[in-house]
Amino acid sequence: MARLADYFVLVAFGPHPRGSGEGQGQILQRFPEKDWEDNPFPQGIELFCQPSGWQLCPERNPPTFFVAVLTDINSERHYCACLTFWEPAEPTQEAVCSEDAAGREEEAAEGGSGRLSPGTSGPPGQLFAPKTLVLVSRLDHVEVFRNSLGLIYTIHVEGLNVGLETVVGNLLTCTIPLAGGSQLDSVEDGVRTISLGAGDRQVIQTPLTDSLPISRCSVALLFRQLGITNVLSLFCAALTEHKVLFLSRSYQRLSDACRGLLALLFPLRYSFTYVPILPAQLLEVLSTPTPFIIGVNAAFQAETQELLDVIVADLDGGTVTVPECVHIPPLPEPLQSQTHSVLSMVLDPELELADLAFPPPTISSSSLKMQDKELRAVFLRLFAQLLQGYRWCLHMVRIHPEPVIRFHKAAFLGQRGLVEDDFLMKVLEGMAFAGFVSERGVPYRPTDLFDELVAHEVARMRADESHPQRVLRHVKELAEQLYKNENPYPAVAMHKVQRPGEASHLRRAPRPFPRLDEGMVQWIVDQATAKMQGAPPAVKAERRTTVPSGPPMTAILERSSGLHGNSARRLEVVRNCISYVFEGKMLEAKKLLPAVLRALKGRAARRCLAQELHLHVQQNRAVLDHQQFDFVVRMMNCCLQDCTSLDEHGIAAALLPLVTAFCRKLSPGVTQFAYSCVQEHVVWSTPQFWEAMFYGDVQTHIRALYLEPAEDRDPSQGWEEPAEEERSALDVASEQRRLWPMLSREKQQELVQKEESTVFSQAIHYANRMSYLLLPLDSSKSRLLRERAGLGDLESASNSLVTSSMAGSVAESYDTESGFEDAETCDVAGAVVRFINRFVDKVCTESGVTSDHLKGLHVMVPDIVQMHIETLEAVHRESKRLPPIQKPKLLRPHLLPGEECVLDGLRVYLLPDGREEGSGGSGGGPAVLPAEGAVFLTTYRVIFTGMPTDPLVGEQVVVRSFPVAALTKEKRITVSTPVEQIPQDGLHLRSCTFQLLKMAFDEEVGSENAELFRKQLHKLRYPLDVRTTFAFTQGAAHTPGRPPRATKDKGPSLRTLSRNLVKNAKRTMGRPHVTRKKYSPPGYEHRGQAPEDQEDEISVSEELEPGTLTPASALKPSDRMTMSSLVERACCRDYQRLGLGTLSSSLSRAKSEPFRISPVNRMYAICRSYPGLLIVPQSVQDNALQRVSRCYRQNRFPVVCWRSGRSKAVLLRSGGLHGKGVVGLFKAQNTPSPGQSQADSSSLEQEKYLQAVVSSMPRYADTSGRNTLSGFSSAHMGGHGKWGSVRASGRSGGLGGDVGSRLAGRDMRGPPQANGAPPDSGFPRPQRAALYIIGDKAQFKGVRPDPLQQWALVPIEMFEARQVKASFKKLLKACVPGCQDFESGPTFLRSLEDSEWLTQIHKLLHVSVMVVELLDSGSSVLVSLEDGWDITTQVVSLVQLLSDPFYRTLEGFRLLVEKEWLSFGHRFSHRGAHTLAGQSSGFTPVFLQFLDCVHQVHLQFPMEFEFSPFYLKFLGYHHVSRRFRTFLLDSDYERIELGLLYEEKGERKGPQTCRSVWEYVDRLSKRTPVFYNYMYAPEDTEVLRPYSNVSNLKVWDFYTEETLAQGPPYDWELAQVSPEPPEEERPDGGAPQSRRRVVWPCYDSRPRAQPDAISRLLEELQRLETELGRPPERWKDNWDRVKAAQRLEGRPDGRGTPSSLLVSSVPHHRRSLGVYLQEGPVGSTLSLSLDSDQSSGSTTSGSRQAARRSTSTLYSQFQTAESENRSYEGTLYKKGAFMKPWKARWFVLDKTKHQLRYYDHRVDTEIKGVIDLAEVEAVVSGTPTMGAPKTVDEKAFFDVKTTRRVYNFCAQDVPSAQQWVDQIQSCLSDA
After folding, report:
1. How many C-beta atoms surround the C-beta of residue 241 within 10 A?
2. Which one is predicted more confidently, 187 or 585?
3. 3-state secondary structure at position 180
């Protein structure tokens, strides 16, 4: 029996001691006055009676009741039931209050009145003071408390004739039965009827089991107030130890909400701060760092605002606010959604029926009390599902004297499949769960509903999951049990308690609540106590049983194990392999090993492996030979590599006994165990793993202590499979706990001692085991320890609960006193000792090991470690003598000058990708992939070099590389290595240069190195700034080529200059600029030889140059010289060639010139992305351009970029129109009204501007009628011609049909004719528009132009940049597929079609040809698409290329790219994602698409282009490679800002790398004809009109071809197999070898292996010249000379050359027959392709001369004898190349050929080497180096610096040295 109430207290209002405004509570009386022995009086009750503070009230309030909860120091909860009523304040109270309130002000005359508080004033009135009756109890019977206090209040108010002392005395002496009604003998024992002596009767029912919480209706109310989602959030927050704060204006609701939340947490007990009602004075408790559940009156909400980590639940408003910094992990799926749906079924049963057509009439919803139990039942089920099988993971560490139980968290998470789950992980680590384990883990105790649910109902819950009605039935059953627990006997619940009458509180009470007679109350209490002492003591009857364990656990979600589903067959393979290993059948085992390693990805296979190996250990077969040892170790490592640090699946636990068993003998007395080879796993350095292992083993041994010997099983199985054992450790422990009280004292002591020594011996065993796995084989390496997760910071690694341990001090003394000489060894050993000591401390303290034993252990550990280190030293020494497994040597790649290795070779396997040629697919050839080698990361490239793994392929080197900047996709993969089939981490790198590196890292490459590689790669791929790219950072190089002429006075540096310019530009941005001086430039032909009198004008022209942003007068003359090259920028040069206007608009100019070069954008103020000089109509003023530009996107207004020489039509480009521009252009054509807006004026300016463009063109329409369609033949309209697909719909739909017919103006279906057919003059000539504007269809929507306008709109549908990006991605996947499966994926052609790349090429060519036709027929065209820098640039560039033969030369194409792409601001850096900022936008190959279009035209017209297809590929590769600076940044403005424009043109000293791609092309072109097209024989007038249908297009071989022998051939220095510098001595040739060689597809470069006939002949010529002792001439000179000879030979006969015959006989066919001439090495090809271009010979126009300008030097016509070319000769000593000696050579200076040759001796005819004086930069005096002739004077040394290297010379004496220097200098100055 227990007391119903411990104390009765009367608390009243009293003055505050410090005289503040508020009062405070005063305890008037308390009964009993002495504390109970078992339960002292709780402190602070007066605070909790009035949580909002004690205050007087102006009116009498109704009485209030609530229950506050106080928790004492022993975590016992005291329930304080408080009933508060108001009485008139006594005068003293009022006086106190008013005095306090008024402060120091004078009081009013009447003593009793005054101001109530500083805020109120008014007439004095009656005040009321609160008084509270408090009942303190340890039992939670709220209703009884309410009734009892209510009865006392009623007696007082109603003046009943009952003594209050009697009632209070009876209340304090009332006893009720303990919980557990079901275990009592009769109903009377479980139900107690009490009466307090006032004619009342109350029935008290005690719950059946006191472990189940009592909730009444609190849970249901909580759900009603907050809703399902909010309550679930609070539930998860409380479980994961977050702070929860409830707010409400009702105290009763606060306590109910807190009670409800706690009830939901059952079976876990909340163990943190729990205060359902927090008084206002204690609000600072809220800032405590520990978790809590607290309720606070909503009046104090403001004080809770600044709490940053508290979850606030507002009960009145129904909201839960979670701060941003708090993350509440949700329940694991599917439990979260299942719980949610069951809760909604309970709370809102009508929801299921809401949609029914015929809903049932009514649904009987449960009463509130029943609903409360149903909600609790849902959560009880949830816990049963979450914690199902938890008893299988309990470790019984000690049984006597008290059970010590530990929970194996990792095993539980692993077997439930919830390792990743944040929620369960936090719950298991929480305090509540620790309490759960210690309380419920006990094997022998009373059980309750939860135990039964977990043990017996799990299968039912799993079966019911998909049947909501069955779930609901189960919930209702559980709810019944919970309800019955709270109300075991509903029939006898009859109460009779008097209540006060209505509004009794308003009646004036006869007197205040009286003071009770203490003596009388005490007498009643004493009497009852005396009676109780006579009675037998109340013993809580407990029915204890063995707690059932329930079924073994299952995963919460049955996941299919996917790829590695372990079938019986897989396990069979594992078993077979192991038996082969142990039977010595190594070849068989080797065959199976790859399959085994694959199977070991699955958990079952790993378990199987551990079991099989265990069997072999049992059979004493643990000593292995070397091969067996390697196999076993490799399989163990494979098992362990997927283990996390927690080892959830127990694999490391199962292998731990095995790694200390398997061994091999290295030499007599030295044995190596397997543990020394499996240390590289994170699991061994995790303290939690070792603890779980230790406890598991202790449990096994403790169990063995108590089992009969016959029943004892093998102890080393641990907890692996307890299901099969007869009696689990828990069963044994339960039995022992039952017997414990019956044992004698001596027997008990003996058992305790046995258990303690068992734990102690295991601790020693584990100290040994840990030292085995933590000490590295080579103990001098501290690396292993430092890198491992746990041991990296060993000091904080352990989660030890022991604070005052001896571990630290012992370890420190060990460090200082140990006998280690080597500091590093000491470091490793010390770290291991500390780690083991912490472990020992923790487990021994928890397992109850005596302190003496613990001290002994601490002394032992250093000795164990020391002993083990000594053993390992011998093992390490012997193991080093074993022959290592041979791995191929790493091949170092060749690097470019200035290219540096960032990460040295990581050993990898290059795996075959989808291109089957490399792996010896259908194309035949050997499988060069997979290859074994290394991947290198340099500042410029990612390079793989290696050799094929296939032994049949031979010693071929495989190289695959790509520029880092070209990387488009990087993905981590897991792949199997080709040889050993070990699953390894790999990388999948794809580049936009169509290379794919699919690599598997070798096992020796750690994951840290692989991660480092990824990080470095990412850093290089996306640098923060373009200045950190390779183009800027590469060092000085050793490349050939003639440097620019050096000038003496250079003036300020160009970088500084450009910075100043940009500063000025920013300062003057937007300021109008007026040019003072005017200048008319010389024609294009006379460029570069301006007469002296034009010097002044040239300086003005510089001022107008785009880069020159300061007035000319501000520049020094030297700067002006620097600037003169700037007017030569591409735009300006081209404008002058086309005669498109002059650099000024002075009076002296010819008025007839229609266009002018405007400097309006010289400050880049109007448009940042345009060049500084623009071509605009003569009549338009500069200030109008600013307004025009507003109508266009990015301010890119229409400017002229090309003019047809024949029809004088112009091509213009601009950005797309803004909406308002279009509207204004075509709808505001009337005269402007006076109040005109700015938009309208802009539109008018735009209209004027277009009018000016139209009027700038010659009026062919009026005169010769050229402005008609006569330029077309009907062929171009026909179904097969140019315009056939104009009307095509669908994906390739170009123009609308009506537009096409309007453009054509005739029947669209004429007979197809050849492309170059002459115009048919018989056609009618409808009127043409003077200007066609080509724009996006969307842009022109709803615009109907005036038919009288002189311009027409051509709306077309073009793709956007993002479509190009998407299309390229698909093209990349099609050409470079990542996987080898052709069956599973689509075929190459299907993927190609899906990419729509060729469709986009077709559209581009189609639109370009349309524009070419319009221009050719005399109409001008404005291309105005998107922003004007992507598709527009593609179209205008193609149009110019097709229309103007100049752009089809090498120089012209360069000019075209510089002008249209670079100057007009194509965003190379943005589209190429060059920097980190552009990473998100991705790679969009707009320029590559243009090059592909040029390639298509090149294929159709192979004789029209001076450059070869290789040139296009070269540009395609290097525009993304970031090797050169040419294609960096997005506009000229940005290049000026970085100082790039000047650097390209500026003069430099000293050898430099080529920063510009054009410079590199020039240098390379001098050495080799690789960029030259031998079939180049253009027709002067030809406008190219290529076929553009998709069927006519070919996939560019740039996308598909690959050379694995050397990598991509676009870095020419690297592509040379053995570059031999011509000036070095060559070794004598050996015996003649066979000229035949095998050429493999995908491996060899076919053009290199089978050069075309002309390249072959040129090479042969060079070789013969060298053999004859003549310096080899440049290929271009030979070629030009042969062509000239061809021309001369062909003329006297009167017959044309074969080429001209060919051309004349088939006049209208494309001259594409020559396309095959490159490939067929036939004799006649030479004469065919050496065609003398007669047409070009006859024309002498400037453009033709420029195009023909050859690089031949002055001496090409001389063929004089060798002796005549010796200007000066003599003997000099020359220092050889690096590491070569000095040698005397005979030198000849040849001024005619401009070279310095040298021979072995004077009469020798064979040249040893040649120094080209064109490459000489300086001749300076030298110093003697090692090995120089001893007798010679120092001043006789001199050095010759060339762009390639520095040559060291030494003459015989000083005069002859001076003579040589003078001669060389004079030769240089003559040149």
Report:
1. 18
2. 585
3. coil
